[in-house]
Amino acid sequence: MRRDYFTLDVRGIDWVEEGGAPTTPTVVIDFEGPADELEARLSASDDELLSAAQTDVALRLQGAVDDAGTTGVVSVTNRLTGDFVLELNEEAGDVLRFIRAARAYGKEADSEERYRVIIRIDGEELVTYEKSTFLVYDREGHLLRQHSLIPSGVEL
User: Fold this and answer.
1) Helix count (H) and strand count (E) of the chain?
2) Taking Cα atoms as reference points, which of 90, 84, 34 lies closest to residue 61?
3) What whole-number distance in Å separates Cα of residue 75 and Cα of residue 54?
4) Given phi > 0 = left and psi -120 to 50 = alpha, else beta, which region is 149?
5) CA 118 to CA 7: how far, in whole Å?
6) φ, ψ for residue 75 (rounded to 5)?
7) SS3 of 97, please?
8) The pLDDT of residue 109
9) Is residue 156 over pLDDT 60?
10) Under DSSP, is residue 84 helix (H, G, I), strand (E, B) or coil?
11) Lowest CB count within 10 Å: 43, 53, 61, 118, which one?
């Protein structure tokens, strides 16, 4: 699927910098392409939609993590098969800001789930995932633990 079929909107992160009440950081991914293809990728072998536990969310950096102009590829993958469900290009700084907000939300709200992912097709909600892990990799594929959102007690 083409990356330009997807748009990403982030909500619920400004409270971290503005000092407001904690709200769940949420990423809304809108898809404007062939619905059947995305639905198939989001489905398990039993044709049911994948659950949150069956998906992983990650950022693969295209440059240095501390470089202001670095972009990255945000991906949702099927944890069972390793297949990419979707990928889209984003500014790395924006994604890292989202991850920091999710980390703060987990501490403030004392919640296992740190953030929410909503995937929509042409504005209609298809699936919502409550997630606690968001992995960040450098351009060579090495995990950047200090920038990733990994719950305590989880071994990778």
Assistant:
1) 3, 8
2) 90
3) 14
4) beta
5) 12
6) -135, 150
7) helix
8) 87
9) no
10) strand
11) 53
Dihedral of alpha carbons 64, 66, 71, 76, sign: positive
pLDDT, tens digit, for every residue of 102-136? 999 998 987 889 999 999 999 999 999 999 999 99
| Structural tokens at position 86 | 């979707």
Quick one: 50 exposed, middle or buried, by C-beta within 10 A (0-12, 13-18, 19+)?
A: buried
Q: Supply the pTM of this predicted model.
A: 0.93
For residue 115, report the phi and psi dihedrals to the nearest 5 degrees.
Answer: -155, 170
Among the listed residues 102, 118, 116, the one whose alpha carbon sits nearest the alpha carbon of residue 151 = 102
DSSP-derived letter for residue 147 is: T
**Average pLDDT for 84-92:** 95
What DSSP string describes 58-74?
EEEESS-TT-TT-EEEE
pLDDT for the residue 35 = 94
**Separation of alpha carbons 117 and 52, rounded Å:** 9
